[in-house]
Write a structure and sequence with these properties.
The complex is a heterodimer of chains A (63) and B (337). Chain A has 63 residues and is mainly α. Chain A has three helices and one strand, in the order H-H-H-E. The longest helix of chain A is centred in the middle third of the chain and has 11 residues. Chain B is of the alpha+beta class and 337 residues long. A five-stranded antiparallel beta sheet of chain B has the order 9-10-11-12-13. In chain B, helix 3 packs parallel to helix 7. The two termini of chain B are 39 Å apart. The chains are: A mainly alpha (63), B alpha+beta (337). At the A-B interface, helix 3 and strand 1 of A face strand 1, strand 2 and helix 1 of B. Strand 1 of chain A pairs antiparallel with strand 2 of chain B, so a sheet runs across the interface.
């Protein structure tokens, strides 16, 4: 149920791909739509503009 | 995308209740906010609610109403990013994701409150009782969609306005809500007195309802949470004061209506940028404050914090009377400048 709307959003990140992937694994974010974007809002907006999709910005620190 | 720390966060766009463990913004590439998701209380959060909020945002993306969505972006902030707030200048550095060094969401809220207070402001109720839940008006809204009225509390402004269980909230102050967080946003912007306008659907028919806002309407629901408001106390007063329970009062011979704040935590010299004024003045963990500046009456946790942020100024003194080992003593505590 969660997948359909999530696929419609841009999933976003700022770190080098390897670092981002390590962080993603460490915090347990599920790669539903490809690489996550961490801490790079401009990159998120750029991807949203490129794809025409809306952006979901999730505020959640590393616990 | 995920924001894991607040350094450089654009506060002209991202304004939300930072006192939570999760918050979500749905918006488009032109920075139009479709809605927010996330509330303080577990009962108002659910995976189904998040999915429905996302669906609601997608619907707005397909058929945007720019005029209706404009008010989901807040007014220009006092400080554009968190790290330039005076209260946060010393404490944080970019890339520091240690527990203390990181700019958390709640750090943004605390930073603004303390920065304003250090600048000599008396904080308005809006900055203490932030992002009120719709329950404050008597509206109990379904967590799963943030729009359906589950029930209406008796003897409340919402009941007086004519709300009924089952009503669908189509717009609040002209904005289409996709979650309870959107209702909180609208209420956060509402005036101290006045009214809040709703467009509602009932049994398939549109209806307009207006809820009056009486004086002090925000204060019906407490804002105090130990983990964040405790920090606020520590920075201003130099200690965390816990309101004593009935049993604890009885042990000390304190009446129910008396002030009874137990000093339960004080900062250490090893903490980054601690306020040690209370410790240097002689206050100790375990002391029970029975009088503050001549006030002996009971205060709730909210009232205690509001007293600090609304009645005291930087550089003034908190004239405390404390009970320690059965004896009373006076301890004046200077507040930071």
């Amino acid at each position: 149920m969660i997948i359909r709307p999530v696929l419609a959003f841009v999933a976003l990140t700022l770190l080098p791909v390897q670092d981002a992937e390590e962080l993603r694994r460490a915090v347990g974010d599920v790669p539903l739509v490809g690489p996550w974007i961490y801490d790079d809002v401009p990159a998120g907006f750029a991807e949203a503009k490129r794809t025409g999709k809306p952006l979901a910005v999730i505020f959640r620190c590393v616990p | 995308m995920r924001v894991i720390q607040g350094w450089g966060l654009d506060l002209s766009l991202f304004q939300f209740d930072g006192d939570m463990t999760l918050a979500v913004f749905f918006l488009n590439a032109e920075r139009t906010i479709y809605g927010r998701y996330g509330t303080k209380h577990a009962r108002d959060s659910s995976l189904e609610g998040l999915v429905n909020a996302a669906e609601g945002a997608l619907e707005l993306h397909r058929r945007p109403d720019k005029a209706a969505l404009a008010a989901k972006t807040g007014p220009a902030p006092r400080w554009r990013t968190p790290e330039v707030m005076p209260a946060l200048l010393k404490r944080h550095s970019k890339g520091d994701v240690s527990s203390y060094g990181c700019i958390h969401c709640h750090t943004v809220r605390e930073g603004e409150m303390i920065s304003r207070w250090l600048g000599g402001e008396s904080l308005p109720d809006r900055l203490l009782w932030q992002y009120p839940l719709p329950n404050v008006l008597g509206l109990n809204v379904e967590a799963k969609d943030g729009r359906t009225v589950r029930s209406v509390s008796n003897n409340t402004a919402a009941q007086a306005a004519g709300f009924k269980a089952g009503d669908a909230l189509v717009k609040v102050e002209g904005q289409p809500p996709i979650s309870i967080a959107d209702l909180q946003w609208a209420l956060h912007q509402a005036p101290e007195t006045g009214e809040v306008a709703f467009e509602v659907e009932r049994a398939g028919r549109p209806l307009k309802l207006t809820v009056p806002l009486g004086e002090g309407w925000r204060k019906r629901i407490p804002f105090h949470r130990n983990n964040t408001t405790g920090f606020l106390q520590m920075k201003v007063a130099g200690f965390f004061g816990d309101v004593l329970s009935g049993g604890e009062r009885q042990k000390r011979g304190l009446a129910d209506e008396a002030l009874g704040l137990r000093v339960s935590y004080m900062p250490s010299a090893k903490d980054p940028d601690p306020n040690l004024n209370a410790a240097r003045a002689g206050l100790r963990v375990g002391d029970v404050i029975t009088e503050v500046d001549g006030r002996k009456g009971r205060m709730t946790a909210d009232e205690w914090l509001a007293y600090l942020f609304q009645k005291k100024k930087p550089g003034e003194t908190l004239e405390l009377t404390v009970l320690r080992a059965g004896a009373a003593q006076k301890i004046p505590v200077p507040l930071p400048r």
